[in-house]
User: Fold indole-3-pyruvate monooxygenase from Panicum virgatum.
Amino acid sequence: MPTSRREAGQEPDHPTTTILRRGGGGGGGGAGGDDAAAGDVDGAAPRQVWVPGPIIVGAGPSGLATAACLKARGVPSLVLEKDACVAASWRHRTYERLRLHLPRCFCELPLAPFPPGTPPYPTRDQFVAYLDGYARAFGIEPNLGARVRSAAYDATIGFWRVAVDEGGGGATAAATEFVSRWLVVATGENAEPAWPEGVEGMDGYRGVAMHTSSYKKGDEFRGKNVLVVGCGNSGMEVSLDLCNNGAKASMVVRDKLHVLPREILGISTFGLSVFLLRWLPVKRVDSVLLFFSRLILGDTEKYGLPRPKIGPLQIKSSTGKTPVLDIGALRKIKTGEIKVVPAINRFTENGVEFIDGHREDFDAVIFATGYKSNVPSWLKEEEFFSHVDGFPRKPFPHSWRGKNGLYAAGFTRKGLMGTSYDALRIAGDIVDQWTEAFASPTAAHRSCSDHGA
Assistant:
């Protein structure tokens, strides 16, 4: 079965594409015709490729998991990835000291456990190696360097048109239009760095300003005075890494947050919560977690880290905001090695002025302000995905399927467990339609609407 563009370069002998052959390259979908031709410097129509199985946009964990689940059930797919490798965000936009926050058993993708000997909390490099091995094991060969410019459903033929620039972009880019009955959006929740907006004086700051996506290791800042903006898991870990490598770290804390120990009585805090939720309501489990957190970590408010009134699991469920799992930063905060500071009022040439009025100079400012979805920039669709935040409008567990063969993988706000949930359900739904299409050519038309609700 083909898993890459190289194998899908010709129209397949498949009932749905035979029907499409008669429909021909009609317009009307938004991503065909005008949009696709707009990027062709020579004015020629883009090369058109009919794909027998689904198009998957993104070769991170969500895209790989979906392709693997499909492949295991006999359905080919075409994976498009704008970068030059799989799992580019994990490989190139994470810091070296990163470890998975959850035990490996909660981070495995479907159908393949971690290799024997992998530690309970795999490092970044170990997880990247796992993803590389996962792609090899299932024969997934993404079309690399393929940047999706637009994707839209063409109702006149009942298929998705995906306009892609291949070959690195710029004047050398080759315009291609891929056409498929199914489109899986797997670019994920963390496609692009999120920068703070509207902070006075940022453009005039003369020190180093970077996002954590560019941060690699703390020894580059040895002896420097560094401000970390953000106090989530990334902000805490970067502050700890800076401190451990001889930098003077300050961390901006603007909101209330829950800090939990990574383990309670030798058991993963996350694993314990998953177990307790089988028997107890969320509020009761939150009470148990907070009791042990106070017992192990003490009163975090004394150190400038006040807790919200709502419990950590309730906040995670309602807002997607993940509690901090402490791996040592809190101890540094208690000793004063990591300094907690209030929100920024404005930047100065050499540092910042905080909202309490005091000023401080910093050699560097690192923004641990998270990431955002990039779906609204390329997907021409109004109903399933919100254009405000780039997430499906439906909450988990109904966030994986839209209409007309559109799917979302990895937008659950539930990490890699959510990725596996999505991949299995998307694959099962597409396999049902794939089987029906082979059983009856006329059923191919019906299933587009029957399975799209």
Residues 1-42, 441-453 have pLDDT under 50 and may be disordered. Residues 415-439 form the longest helix (25 residues).
